[in-house]
Amino acid sequence: MEMTELRSLVRGVVESGTLGYDQKLRRLAMLATDALEYPELSDACAAALDKRIICDMYEGHAPFTPRYVLPDYAVALANGSRHLELDPPDNLEDALAFLQIMYAHIPSVTTYPVYLGDLDRLLEPFVDDSISDERLDQLLRRFWIALDRMLPDAFVHADLGPDDGRVVRSILRVERSLRQVVPNLTLRVDPARTPDDLVLDAVTTVFETAKPHFANHPMMVADHGEAYAVVSCYNSLKVGGGAHTLVRLNLKEAVRQHVGGVDAFLEDTLPRMVELTAELIEARIRSLVERQRFFDTHWTVAEGLVRLDRFSAMFGVFGLAEAVDLLIEHEGGSGRYGHDPDAAAISYRITERVAELVAARPIPYCEGGGGRCYLHAQSGIDTDDHVTAGTRIPVGEEPDMLTHLTTCAPHHRLFAAGVSDIVHVDDTARRNPQAVVDIIRGAFAIGMRDFTFNLDDNEFIRITGYLVRKSDLVDIDARGARHGSDLLAAGSEAAYHLTTRAVKRIGCHELTPRADR
Amino acid sequence: MSSPRALIADTVPFSNVDGPGNRFVVFFQGCNFDCIACHNPSTIAVCTHSATRERSVDDLLVEIRRAAPFLSGITVSGGEATLQAPFVAALFAVIKGDPVLRRLTCFVDSNGSADAETWDRLLPVMDGAMIDLKCLDDDVHRALTGQSNRAVLESIRHLHSAGRLYEVRLLIVPGYNDDPELLARTARWLSEVDPHLRVVVIGFRSHGVRPHEPALHEQSAAQLAERAAIVARSGALDVVVV
């Protein structure tokens, strides 16, 4: 970047009347690292990045923190922190204060924590008979308000379940009463451990706040072990580890680079594209680990809250729907993904081939994933246009729910780092929440990994996956945004006309947008 | 033996408004009532319209198996499902005998016109019935449906004593069955059958209904809530407003 361009971009940020103070700081930092040279890439890789066939999520030219850090807060609560000069807490109030302090020091690409911990598991040991439910609600309510007001957006994520307990019940009560954007929530569901009644409680919470997200616990444990969490915009990763980076392959653009049918795509074009993506991932990881040396310098590593060998990188794909439709066109057909079994069959061949290629490509510093990247169905960013998130069926074109779920489900097993399909339910479900519990149970039974519900008339809507309140989007240009994600949403609103759609669900966003926009 | 067949208007793989949980619904073609407030009048006549076709138990099982992981159960509706009771009994029996499907509950959504003999045929394989009571007053019932309510009241008592009455539905049609005194009497009668009965009070909606002279009107949410309150006041009934 030339100095004159940098100066003009910096001036745009500092003079913005819409960006808040914190948002300006984050963008300025991004512009600064973007003034450095990019990690060295082959010409082919640089060209693919330039054309955005592969995308580095605008994480910056010199990553100095992993994209997602999942500290093992249980270790911190047990040992205290020398770096933060905190003794281990021995009661609930101290534990909440301890965590709140810690959150202020947890890095990620977004500069604030994307993972707040498995809050019910962490806090349950501090809750005994001396604390009434009223008192528990009061303390968690205060904690919850602090999280929403202190942490900037809906990529902040807390995990619950799979076991029932007083804390998870209290958190759901507090959620329903406060109706906040932050934090985002996931309930892990294990059919053998999670009582239907707890899932029902979570479903009634969905009707109020469009949270929690639901994760298939046994499937996640099979891929990651017991210590995993869903963080940010539905990325499932190892606790005590995380993801160095996320690089995504635009399958629609990959097909546009391709001449010929499905077989040739799978044997020739796709392997080349996967290798270019892997090259970019490797270059970014080496930059983070070897040049910026995060793991040699950060206190969370020194205190054992994260370990390099529990990290991997996320290999994201998106635009599967358009890729399938284009390949069918190339072959002279007319089927569409989501509506035609032949199109679905092609989609499975594509994701299975991607999974095979990614599994065959060793990546350094990815022991968390057995030396390989985790696959992730990436759910979009606000600049995406005319390309569908992850492996989803295009917004507004979804078939009936049963066909929708059975079409998407076969992809899920391949995506250890998360899929996050969004399932729309209409308002009548409010009177019959058990029907939604049935759908959750069924979705897991047919092999879905994780998904979110959106309710037709909810005040909360998902823009590409993260939550915003409709009322927060009104007049955003004039008065600025409190949550960084609201600002992103305002951009997406314009792109997708979301609030006016009959069916409001869409792909996701997991990142600060480009610093120059 | 070949799979029994019946005239079926349509099926819906997922419904959250036809009984407890998520349900697969079979809408039979043909009804012995001719309700002026029917919101699905194309299913009344025993004749075919575009979607109607004869289907076998085996045909339905293919569809049910696909949806089964997501279901609490299946509901037969209509039209009037009990007019094709042998088919319903056969369908439910197969479900109850199937190792995978047997966890699904089998419900009948009915106008209540079936006689005791018909219900007794279904009871061994049926988990619950949802009965529409169009009106406790027989004259008004005839005006609304073209038929007497005697069989309906008898069905409600019979199903309750068999332990299979899941709910009674009251469709409130303004100007016909929304008189406060009549509703209070209806609630008392239902309380005598079962003091804790689940009663669903449904507001008339004109969507799909045939033109009628004089025209039928929808009530406001407030008016409906007021009528539901009358029903709720008259007993310990579990009243739900839709």
In short:
With 517 residues, chain A is an alpha/beta fold. In chain A, 45% of the residues lie in helices and 14% in strands.
Distance between the termini of chain B: 43 Å
How would you describe the oligomerization state of the chains in this entry? heterodimer
Unreliable residue stretches of chain B: none
The 3D shape of chain B can be described as globular
Helix content of chain B: 25-40%
For the largest interface in this structure, which chains are involved and how many residues does each contribute? Answer: A-B, 21 and 17 residues
Description:
The complex is a heterodimer of chains A (517) and B (242). By secondary structure, chain A is α/β, with parallel strands linked by helices. Chain A is built from 21 helices and 15 strands. Chain A has a 6-stranded mixed β-sheet with strand order 3-4-5-6-13-12. In chain A, strands 1, 2, 9, 10 and 11 form a 5-stranded mixed β-sheet that branches. The two termini of chain A are 15 Å apart. Residues 493-513 of chain A have low confidence and may be disordered. Chain B has 242 residues and is of the alpha/beta class. Chain B has helices spanning 57-67, 85-97, 116-122, 138-145, 150-161, 180-193, 221-233, and strands at 5-15, 23-28, 53-56, 73-77, 105-110, 128-132, 165-172, 198-203, 238-241. In chain B, strands 3-1-2-4-5-6-7-8-9 form a 9-stranded mixed β-sheet. In chain B, helix 2 (85-97) packs parallel to helix 3 and helix 6 (180-193) packs across helix 7. The radius of gyration of chain B is 18 Å and the shape is globular. The chains are: A alpha/beta (517), B alpha/beta (242). Chains A and B meet through helix 17 and helix 18 of A and strand 1 of B.
